[in-house]
Write a structure and sequence with these properties.
Aminopeptidase; alpha+beta; 6 helices; 34% strand; single chain
Length: 170
């Protein structure tokens, strides 16, 4: 049997062998609210509802990108713009797609898009205990500009500190 990936790309066999799935990044809209809510709930202790996402996605100052694997949403990033600054409100990647560079790909596309809108600085908050996310943001040249003690409160666990990070795009 000849597998089609040997014909389409000389490197496709490696992705197949490693179990990586191709994903595409594109702008998101209100049609994505339900899938955003489901992925957000799976990724975080308290997810936002589809209605909350829909309200965000109709705002003129909100920009969102999604990563799809076929028809399945496997990641998203959503930001709110204010003057020449943006705040990344949330980023989530499906558990089965973590550790494959998808969050970096999503953020690369998203940050380029924000720069096209004239955004000079981007901010986000991350739990200081989230080492993989902190490594990702550090690799994308975000740096700490503040801290919010006892910001993340989870059921049955000690409150975590939020690190406020910034990256200049200009």
């Amino acid at each position: 049997m000849i597998f089609p990936f040997f014909v389409t790309s000389p490197w496709a066999w490696l992705s197949w062998l490693l179990g990586a799935s191709a994903s595409s990044v594109s702008p998101a809209g209100t049609r994505d609210a339900e899938q955003f809510a489901a992925l957000h709930a799976a990724a975080f202790g308290r997810g936002w509802s589809a209605e909350e996402f829909e309200r965000l996605l109709i705002e003129h100052n909100v920009v969102a990108d999604r990563a799809m694997s076929g028809e399945r949403l496997v990641g998203f990033v959503i930001s709110r713009l204010a003057a020449d600054q943006a705040e990344i409100l949330s980023i989530a990647v499906a558990a089965s797609f973590r550790g494959r560079g998808l969050a970096r790909k999503l953020l690369d596309v998203h940050l380029r898009r924000l720069a096209l809108y004239g955004i000079g600085s981007v901010f986000l908050e991350v739990d200081e205990r989230n080492i993989p996310a902190r490594r990702l943001y550090s690799g994308l040249r975000f740096h700490e500009v503040g801290r919010r003690d006892s910001y993340y409160v989870g059921a049955g666990q000690e409150a975590g500190t939020a690190l406020v990070l910034r990256r200049d795009l200009a």
